Amino acid sequence: MINITLPDGTVKQYEQGVTGLDIAYGISEGLARNVLAARVNGEVWDAFRPIKEDATVELLTWNNDEGRTTFWHSSAHLLAEALEALYPGVKFGIGPPIDNGFYYDVDLGDQEFGEDDLVRVEQKMVELAREKNEYKREEVSKSDALKYFTEKGDEYKLELIDELADGTITFYQQGNFTDLCRGPHIPNTGFIKAVKLTNVAGAYWRGDEKRKQLTRIYGITFPKQKELTEYLERLEEAKKRDHRKLGKELELFTFSEKVGMGLPLWLPKGTILRDRLENFMRRAQIKSGYDPVVTPHIGSKQLYITSGHYEKYGQDSFQPIHTPHEGEEFLLKPMNCPHHCEIYASKPRSYRDLPVRLAEFGTVYRYEQSGELHGLTRVRGFTQDDAHIFCRPDQVKEEFIKVIDLVLYVFKALGFEDYTAQVSLRDPDNREKYIGADELWEKAEREIQEAADERGLTTVVELGEAAFYGPKLDFMVKDALGRSWQLGTIQVDYTLPERFELEYTGADNRKHRPVMIHRAPFGSMERFIAVLIEHCAGNFPLWLAPDQIAVLPISEKYQAYAEKVFQELSEADIRGFLDNRDEKIGRKIRDAEVSKVPFMLILGEKEQETGTVSIRRHGQGDVGGMALDEFISYFQGERDETLVKL
């Protein structure tokens, strides 16, 4: 007999070899029908895998993240089985679960495959799912694994097996399909009731542009048809909100192949939007005691060797710039922090001077592969609302808490109300990815958790998500469609001050190392604006909207009055445009609605005679007339209401 501890602390005895499904049936048949996997001693297992020793066990369903991940992983295998049935000779790369669904990278040889083929494969997946074939796990030797895929002729699996140690290899089989996989999987294909293959893309094998390009097929599945229907409705709404679509319609930004992939060009309205966000942050930073700085777009290669960025990112980034001077090399700036370290080091510092808070809207450059680029969310040049705080060890927690408050202020002002703080720590099994002493890492990790607890944040811990120089607190924000985005980050760093030999003179008249806090409430301006566009569907808060008003004269007879109104609005710092085109008023209104202008001021004979304006709100229609000074007061009150006080 073995002891099984359940999440509520209950300890029950079972015969050795009991499975998660057995435990579920012992509780209720209803639970057993919904169990997709089990967490055994912290590791996610197949619900049908025998447990042979004392363990803590949690049963996972669709309501658990790991349950959904297991469901989608099993669905990727179902997709592969359908492809193998329909396209003989297909070869398989990898088929992992992703945030929403799964994909499989496949080599179809000379066989054509496009969007039109997705429905045919979907139907085959549904047919196979109804067979309720069990997912069967088998441990295999390396020699047997190599033999199986050699006979099958699948070189991609053979390459993966070559990198695995004997005794760690498992196969999973369902129906007529067998795959190399570590699992876990759901009990059988019958759990999969609704299937949608969403799109087809190209993907280089193992992300290497020099390797063969495979066909990547994306999909998503659900245990109920209703859930798929709701998901597709959300997907349709997401398409309407796509920042690439709205960015073009609202004339915010564009891209040019001549300029280069992943390098956005900000149009006048988009630049106004950026400027307002930057000014909003600058005001908040001044109130919080930050000093503005500006650093170059390039730096000596040696600077990034000192910081460790070249070692960690140099091979995958833009290559060095060579000057006419032999041996002199520069890099496009991948991070602002090394530059800020040198600003701190530019003069002697006393313990009385600390904290030193340096802030910059600094543009950095990182080479992203072309297949990874996506609108503003994944670019090669982006601007960070970057700041670095250099403080004494006894000031770390207080400063960290102040930065948390600043991040939450930004979220509140821009309508992001649903967020979780992610404590991002080192990967305990891969310490070589990081720099710095263990004791400093442990101290920084402890301080981050204490600061988050003190502010009452809901936190989750993620191993392996730390920066290479220190742990961090990442804010995972849900948008209006329930999608999760990483916006805002705070990091504690004991390592860079050591590498740059930064010092301050303490009260004991001896030299000490400062601690460095990295922070970026927006993160990257490009990514933040992309998420904001999709969150509010282009209907920005009134204070932020590029065009806050549109002055629309009914005809040219009222042009002079319209110009007078527009001038008075401009003097009151109300921004927008005067539409004096020779178009009917209905067309002008429609165009302003499409441009999502919050207020339209319609001017005709009555308004000119009475010195008033007729007001129309975007998405609401006519709201009546007002004297111009009355409208200005009304507008300013509403605009200021959307600006949260720091």
Produce a short descriptive summary.
This protein has 646 residues and is of the alpha+beta class. It contains 20 helices and 33 strands. A hairpin with a 3-residue loop joins strand 32 (612-617) and strand 33 (621-627).
In words, what does this structure look like?
By secondary structure, this protein is α+β, with helices and mostly antiparallel strands. It is built from 20 helices and 33 strands. The protein has an eight-stranded mixed beta sheet with strand order 16-20-21-28-25-24-22-23, sandwiched between helices. It has a five-stranded mixed beta sheet with strand order 2-1-5-3-4. Strands 6, 7, 8, 12 and 13 form a five-stranded antiparallel beta sheet that branches. Helix 3 crosses helix 4 (118-129). The longest helix has 22 residues, at 65-86. The chain is globular and about 90 Å long.
Give me some keywords for this one.
single chain; 646 residues; alpha+beta; five-stranded mixed β-sheet; 33 strands; 26% strand; globular
SSE diagram, text form:
Layout: E1 2-5, E2 11-14, H1 20-27, H2 29-32, E3 37-40, E4 43-46, E5 55-60, H3 65-86, E6 91-92, E7 97-98, E8 101-107, H4 118-129, E9 136-139, H5 142-152, H6 155-162, E10 170-174, E11 177-180, E12 194-204, E13 213-222, H7 225-241, H8 243-249, E14 253-254, E15 265-266, H9 268-287, E16 291-292, E17 298-300, H10 301-307, H11 309-313, E18 321-322, E19 329-332, H12 337-344, E20 356-365, E21 381-391, H13 396-413, E22 418-425, H14 438-454, E23 459-463, E24 472-478, E25 484-493, H15 495-499, E26 504-505, E27 511-512, E28 515-520, H16 525-536, E29 549-553, H17 559-571, E30 576-578, H18 585-594, E31 599-603, H19 605-610, E32 612-617, E33 621-627, H20 628-641
Parallel strand pairs: 1-5, 16-20, 22-23, 29-30, 29-31
Antiparallel strand pairs: 1-2, 3-4, 3-5, 6-8, 7-8, 8-13, 9-10, 10-11, 12-13, 14-15, 17-19, 18-19, 20-21, 21-28, 22-24, 24-25, 25-28, 26-27, 31-32, 32-33
